[in-house]
């Protein structure tokens, strides 16, 4: 540990350079995202770029704090540790015979703790009777609507199917829509965002959720051929007083490239399902 801290103290300038580069990098990302947001035509695109601006500024602050932490560690913490550790060097050589006695006393205590650990597992098997109770609720989502879509976007993505937990929902609940994608042979030119919009029959936008596939954990440009991606979206209602049927529109878009087109030239897909928004 002392060697590691000494190395950090001797090479702190490397950390300063890395932090400075990180601050410049994330500041440029924030400024670029803000420029893109100012040119965005869609609300969804502006919200997406706003999140990117916020993320970039947060990362800038984090990198700056890391630099401050490195400076404080190299300037104050390491010298204090060195001064506190140096008096201990002489006594350890003189009392080297006494130290083994301490370790032997410590060795006897684990034996006592081991004896106390063994009885506790005998009590834990009792909850093993509980899993049958959890098997009941897991069957409920099976009653929700599912369906095939099989719509291809470009030569890189195929929307296989959708899944919903229930056909009936209230405006106080979030609509949990799960999409299943398959990666095709082509490579996506952009890390497209998946947009899921919920509309009333009158055309009113009831709610929406936009994110990169897999909650942002599976960027589209990194997909491999044949990979199946589970993509969950939680849509909240914007109009709490709405009651009636509603349908979903799904598609892909990028702030710079716009929307990706399907094989038929459309820029979105209407899912073949209608849900009922009921009064609470």
Describe the structure.
It contains 7 helices and 10 strands. The strands form 2 sheets. Strands 3, 5, 6, 8, 9 and 10 form a 6-stranded mixed beta sheet that branches. Strands 1-2-4-7 form a 4-stranded antiparallel beta sheet, with no helix packed on it. Helix 1 crosses helix 3 and helix 2 packs antiparallel against helix 3. With 280 residues, it is α+β, with helices and mostly antiparallel strands. The longest helix has 43 residues.
How many strands, what sense, and barrel or not for the largest sheet? 6 strands, mixed
Percent of residues in helices comes to 40-55%
Listing every helix as H and every strand as E from the N terminus to the C terminus, the arrangement reads HHHHHHHEEEEEEEEEE
What structural class results from the helix and strand content?
A: alpha+beta
Low-confidence stretches: 86-127, 134-141
Taking Cα atoms only, what radius of gyration do you get, to the nearest Å? Answer: 29 Å
Compute the number of helices: 7
Given the C-alpha coordinates, what overall shape results?
Answer: elongated
CATH topology-level fold name of the largest domain? Immunoglobulin-like
Distance N to C terminus: 60 Å
What's the total count of β strands? 10
What's the CATH architecture name of the largest domain? Answer: Sandwich
Number of domains: 2
What is the arithmetic mean of pLDDT?
A: 80
CATH class identity of the largest domain? Mainly Beta
Strand content: 25-35%
